[in-house]
Design brief:
By secondary structure, this protein is an all-alpha fold. Helix content is 77%, strand content 1%.
Length: 569
């Protein structure tokens, strides 16, 4: 099988799904209205609610939802073979992923920009808001820990990344100043800041981390875990326009260069897929069902997207008709990124090299950087430059999500306990606690287990977001079959995955069979296993309670006249 056929298949799914299925739902069910006033205009405050061009917002949305998820998940999933991973990416995004993103976003848009917590209070019950906020907090902790582990593993092995990443951050800060303070033309801003970021990639080759920090410090996991949380803490406490939004905008172009360059390398080089189509049903991290469906936690379907969309993007949409290209369009492009990432592991290197890097070479980050550099080399980029670009892409994708996670954890902390503990009403204090917990999880957790748990929590959140979206559709007198069927599939699958993984982790702790990963002490590994297992168990219980309340709400909205009563209310 040549990789080009898989890429062409992905393009066909993206274009066809966006044009026909998304177009049909938009016209017949949602009926977006360009004349309806959006929350961004209604509540404009210059902080969270601010009308933003769909062209800027598309880059922000894509970078915010993608993170490292579609890259890392697809590369890990190759352990089952390329065929199961490809099918889940194609079918997941077509029937579940874009539906989740678009409909949850439109639900928030039509409900004054409410976040998931507010929507659950409005559409399910007051208790649901408290439970969902608790669920979201621990889910976000797992997400930050998983991405922090990816960053630490990548920066230990890929030493050209830190300087390149810092230059990119400076370019993002400059972009914010040029757009929002100096009112510079967007084209000029884009050219200046993207060129600066590309120069930074070259500087990363010239100034590797060991030459600045020393070999021992540059190879220390704690160093890069601390780097990640400090970077994200600064981003989380600054106004979104000052750093997070412009950084995502500039980084979007770097990611697109890598994505388009990788596709071009495949089209020119016509590499053959070297990995097997299928290996075996059960691998080291678990069976194909349910674990594959939470391993690829982005690119097919991701609950994180509903967090970003309802808490951020929908408060910046200038027109309702911008929602389809920004929300659904970003999801289809994320699937393309996942497929390219799959090919960097399956077609850009022998399967034996992939397995060696996964076990001894730092994991999915170095696999992606190595494979992408091979594709970029086909179209003329030097291997070293391409590897640094791949490193920057995987790191900035992970950091983008982490900085938003800390911002959301800050909000969740204030809403959950701010009334009882006044000091936690302070944004910097709440963010510091979230950053400290994240660093603890990065240091004690094994990255593959962290990834599976994050994926399970992520897909479980997606099912809950689909439940909320279904309730809104029913409250408006609209059909909700196309959201309810995916909701049930994701809920059953992810509950099974979390129970399976939680049992494995806690049983190892109780029977003394914990094994330390590279760079870990046995005590750290034991703490990490116990913490991850308990968090997973809590998420399962919280999700079951939410489902119980949700089912009662579904019955309520299906009663005769319920939709009209809800609309009048």
């Amino acid at each position: 099988m040549q990789a080009i056929f898989i890429i062409l298949g992905a393009l066909a799914v993206a274009v066809g799904g966006y044009r026909w299925y998304a177009g049909f739902v938009d016209r017949k069910v949602i009926q977006a209205d360009p004349n309806r006033v959006t929350p961004a205009k209604m509540y404009m405050d210059g902080v969270d609610f601010m009308p933003t061009s769909k062209y800027v917002l598309f880059g922000y949305q894509f970078k915010s939802i993608a993170g490292a998820g579609p890259v890392v998940g697809a590369i890990i999933a190759l352990q089952w073979g390329w065929l199961p991973a490809m099918l889940w990416l194609f079918l997941g995004v077509l029937f579940i992923g874009w539906v989740h993103d678009y409909v949850s976003g439109m639900t928030s848009l039509r409900c004054d920009g409410l976040s998931l917590g507010g929507l659950s209070y409005k559409l399910i019950s007051p208790r649901a808001r408290l439970i969902l906020l608790s669920f979201v907090y621990f889910y976000l902790l797992l997400l930050a820990g998983a991405f922090g582990g990816v960053i630490a593993g990548a920066l230990i092995k890929l030493t050209s990344g830190p300087v390149a990443m810092l230059v990119l951050a400076a370019a993002g800060a400059l972009a914010g100043q040029m757009i929002y303070r100096w009112r510079t033309n967007i084209l000029v801003t884009t050219v200046v800041c993207v060129v600066l970021a590309l120069i930074g990639i070259k500087l990363g080759d010239m100034l590797p981390a060991p030459s600045i920090l020393g070999a021992s410090l540059a190879a220390n996991k704690f160093t890069w875990g601390l780097f990640a949380v400090v970077f994200c803490y600064i981003s989380a406490v600054l106004p979104i326009w000052r750093f997070a939004l412009p950084l995502n905008y500039v980084a979007f172009y770097i990611v697109m260069f890598g994505l388009v360059g990788g596709i071009a390398g495949i089209l020119v080089g016509l590499p053959v897929v070297q990995a097997p189509a299928f290996t075996q049903f059960t691998i080291g991290i678990g069976p194909l069902w349910p674990i594959l469906f939470v391993t690829i936690a982005c690119g097919a379907i991701s609950g994180w997207h509903s967090m970003v969309t309802t808490s951020g993007t929908c408060r910046q949409l200038e027109y309702e008709t911008d929602a389809k290209p920004v929300l659904a369009g970003s999801m289809f492009v994320e699937m393309l990124l996942g497929v390219v990432a799959l090919m960097t592991a399956a077609a850009a290197m022998p399967f034996s090299q992939y397995k060696e890097i996964m076990t001894k070479g730092g994991g999915a980050g170095p696999v992606f950087a190595t494979g992408l550099s091979n594709f970029l080399n086909i179209i003329g980029l030097p291997l070293a430059y391409g590897k640094t670009m791949g490193t920057v892409i995987i790191i900035v994708l992970a950091l983008t999500v982490m900085q938003l996670v800390l911002r959301f954890m800050k909000v969740a902390t204030i809403e959950l306990v701010g009334d009882y503990t006044p000091i936690l009403r302070s944004g910097p204090v709440a963010t510091f606690i979230a950053a400290a917990l994240t660093l603890l999880l990065v240091q004690t957790g094994w990255w593959q287990y962290l990834w599976i748990l994050f994926g399970g929590a992520n897909q479980l959140l997606a099912s809950l977001a689909l439940l909320v979206a279904s309730l809104w559709l029913l409250s408006q007198g609209k059909k909700a079959t196309f959201t309810l069927i995916p909701m049930w599939f994701m809920f059953i699958t992810t509950i099974a995955a979390l129970i399976y993984t939680s049992y494995n982790l806690l049983s190892k702790v109780l029977t003394g069979q914990v094994k330390a990963a590279t760079g870990q002490s046995l005590l750290e590994a034991t703490i990490g296993n116990g913490l991850m297992g308990l968090v997973a168990l809590f998420l399962v219980i919280a999700a079951l309670v939410l489902l119980y309340d949700g089912i009662k709400a579904l019955r309520r909205y299906r009663e005769p006249g319920a939709a009209a009563a809800a609309e009048a209310k």
